Amino acid sequence: MEFSKEDIAAVYPKVAATLADALGCDVDQVKLDASLIEDLQAESIDFLDLVFRLERAFKVKIPRGKIIEDARGELSEVEFEQRGVLTEAALIRLKSFLSEVPPERIKSPLKATEIPRLFTPETFCKVVLRAQRAQVMA
Amino acid sequence: MTIDSKLAGKIALVTGGSRGIGRAIVETLAADGADVTFVYRGAAEAANEVVAQATGRGLRVAAEQADVRDAPQCEALVEKIISRHGTIDILVNNAGVVRDGLLVMLSADDVREVIETNLVGTITMSRAVVPTMISRRSGSIVNLSSVAASKGGRGQSNYAASKGGIEAFTRALAVELASRRIRVNAIAPGVIETEMSQAVRDLAGEQVLARILLKRYGQPQEIANAVWFLASQLAGYVTGEVLHVDGGFKMD
């Protein structure tokens, strides 16, 4: 496991508040395992806004496109997707990288453009934790 | 009925503000109560004079040196303004250069310089400013195009391409940002009496004047008025629009 429950819990309240601000919803509606797009009606531009707000709230840098880049990990582009559809290797990789997402939601055929549909508030807790870790290392 | 542009207290960023049309835009927005920071690339003396004159009149105007082609410089500038004022409400992408000449006579640098300053500079500064506007769900961006974007003119292929790109960028960005209540528009000036258009006026003044319906060149202030309108809440229902301010040149 990349981060412990305690790690996630430490950043979650601020991530949830930031999410509520970005989506214009009540913080009580934000659940750790909700799908941001399906349950909270987020649009792609909201993810950008969320990243900008998280950068400010946590004083970290989150390079654009970082989540997808990290999701791919060691896999090359061809190993990850073919004609826009994720490969078997990519699905295995995603299940471990997005361990917060119920594995039954990560099933073939899944298009690369559909990856954001999987994101939950916990995904963004991990984004923040990774950014904090990168900052400490730098 | 009173007409309120609602510009008072708004934070504006204008690129290329030390001379010509840019200077008139800076002074007009500031005169209506906006807090204006303008960017200049090399003309430090002219920039200081604009600030001195404006502050002498009690206006809030500041100058910052930056190259709009350089993304890190744009981002650092935006960060500085946000830390000073909390946000940016209005962005006017005005910085532009001309390197006129017949295509085959243009150097690679003439082409690159014009496209990079006019088009890439507009895109780069917009990229730096848009995040804060998205987060605040409001904002107005006004890009300076030119009559050259829609009206072919000899010796201006590089300039025309850069301005045509700005108009296409304006429309696409308007679509992208509409759901966040950010308006994106452009102004297409005709021939305006500035240093930048001096060469064109010297070279083809008679011919050009003959083709302008109103039979005169425009003044920087007339462009600034149009920018003021699009930047303000008076144009609250206008987005993705290119407003031609050219004395009817485009009709010819």
How many E strands of chain A?
A: 2
The percent range for helix content of chain A is 40-55%
- Globally, the shape of chain B reads globular
Structural class based on helices, strands and sheet pairing of chain B: alpha/beta
Sum up the overall morphology of chain A in one term. Answer: globular
Topology order of chain B in helix (H) and strand (E) letters: EHEHEHEHEHEHHE
Domain count of chain B: 1
Q: Which oligomerization state do the chains in this entry correspond to?
A: heterodimer
Tell me the radius of gyration of chain A: 15 Å
Name the structural class of chain A.
Answer: mainly alpha
Query: Sheet with the most strands of chain B?
Result: 7 strands, parallel
What percentage of the residues of chain B does DSSP assign to strands (E)? 15-25%
Strand order of the biggest β-sheet of chain B: 3-2-1-4-5-6-7
Separation of the first and last Cα atoms of chain A: 23 Å
CATH class of chain A: Mainly Alpha
Helix and strand succession of chain A?
HHHHEEHH
CATH superfamily of chain A: ACP-like
**Would you identify the CATH architecture of chain A?**
Orthogonal Bundle
